[in-house]
Write a structure and sequence with these properties.
Blueprint lengths: L10 H23 L18 E6 L32 E3 L4 E4 L2 E14 L2 E8 L1 E3 L4 E13 L9 E6 L7 E8 L4 E10 L2 E9 L9 E8 L2 E6 L2 E7 L8 E6 L20 E20 L14
Parallel strand pairs: 2-5
Antiparallel strand pairs: 1-16, 3-4, 4-5, 4-16, 6-15, 7-12, 7-16, 8-9, 8-15, 9-10, 10-11, 12-13, 13-14
């Protein structure tokens, strides 16, 4: 897909575009190796007994909690608040963020969208929510219960980005390359433009046909990616972030440059990334910053 009105890339976006190419090269090498990262030793108790529940978002309100969630993208390297980069075909629209029967449904749809941030004509739209400037945390356990869409081009993701709006780091807790039926579990770290990935992945869960839980246990110098209570990937060392990070839940449509490949005739549209709940527990050495107007999503303000 090409934009009807091409937007010139500034130097930052050009560097970022080159970086995306390097990332995709890495992902392809990773996928060709078909590595399945699974721990065989004792699984952790989740959440740990001394962690405190701080955020409990069950999406059971009539409308999205705008004190907690924003629907614009604020990550470094974006080409606009509604469009990420050339790895994506979709423009972000509020109409694709739906609350239905206690479930957040992030839709991806086929159809022309005339966007203005950046200007252009897009062939697809998608929904995204982000807690930037509203809720962030350091060290704890975060978990969602979700069901992912399938088909070539589908690219939903559950991820964390730094509240400082730098990049890296980036936690990809559950990034689904539906075109390959592979769940990417990764941490981007280092200093831009010299970035590195500590990544794993798995194919042994029914991501599309069943509800599953996906979590990240984030500790000082250690992180574990967990699905249905089972550790699927981990990394240890000083590269594990120690700064506040916020939450992003996004559906997306991959371009031919993206890791899910471009959609084909068999890809179903609209498709939905469905989230039943999102919960965050803080560790004894962790911290959280939250907009006090979030209301009932804050665990200590839940009605008994």
């Amino acid at each position: 897909m090409k934009l009807a009105a091409k937007v010139p890339l500034n130097s930052l976006n050009w560097s970022f575009a080159r970086l995306v190419f390097c990332q995709i090269t890495f992902f392809c090498a990773f996928l060709e190796c078909a590595v399945l990262t699974v721990r065989a030793d004792e699984e952790p108790r989740l959440p740990p007994a001394d962690f405190k529940l701080i955020l409990d978002e069950s999406f059971d309100a009539a409308r999205l909690n705008s004190e907690l969630w924003e629907t614009k993208l604020k990550v470094l390297g974006r080409e606009g608040d509604r469009y990420h980069n050339h790895s994506y075909l979709n423009y972000l629209v509020d109409e694709d963020v739906l609350l239905e029967a206690g479930t957040l449904r992030l839709r991806a749809a086929r159809g022309k969208v005339h966007g203005d941030d950046p200007p252009g004509v897009y062939e697809y739209s998608a929904g995204m929510v982000s807690s930037h400037d509203r809720f962030s945390f350091t060290y704890g356990y975060i978990e969602m219960r979700a069901k992912f869409p399938g088909g070539k081009g589908a690219w939903p993701c559950f991820w964390l980005m730094p509240q400082s709006h730098q990049w890296p780091p980036e936690f990809d807790i559950a990034e689904y390359y539906a075109g390959r039926k592979l769940m990417h579990l990764g941490l981007c770290h280092g200093n831009f433009p010299d970035v590195q990935w500590a990544s794993g992945g798995n194919l042994d869960v029914d991501f599309e046909g069943a509800w599953n839980t996906f979590g990240l246990l984030w500790l000082p110098n250690k992180a574990q990616w967990i699905q249905n209570g089972v550790v699927k990937h981990e990394t240890e060392g000083q590269h594990v972030p120690n700064i506040p990070m916020y939450v992003i839940l996004s559906n997306g449509v991959s371009s031919r440059f993206g890791p899910s490949g471009a959609p084909n005739a068999e890809t179903v549209f609209p498709n939905f990334f469905e989230i039943d709940y999102l919960r965050v527990w803080i560790s004894p050495v962790g911290s959280a910053t939250a907009n006090p107007r979030i209301g009932s999503a804050l665990a200590d303000q839940k009605t008994p």
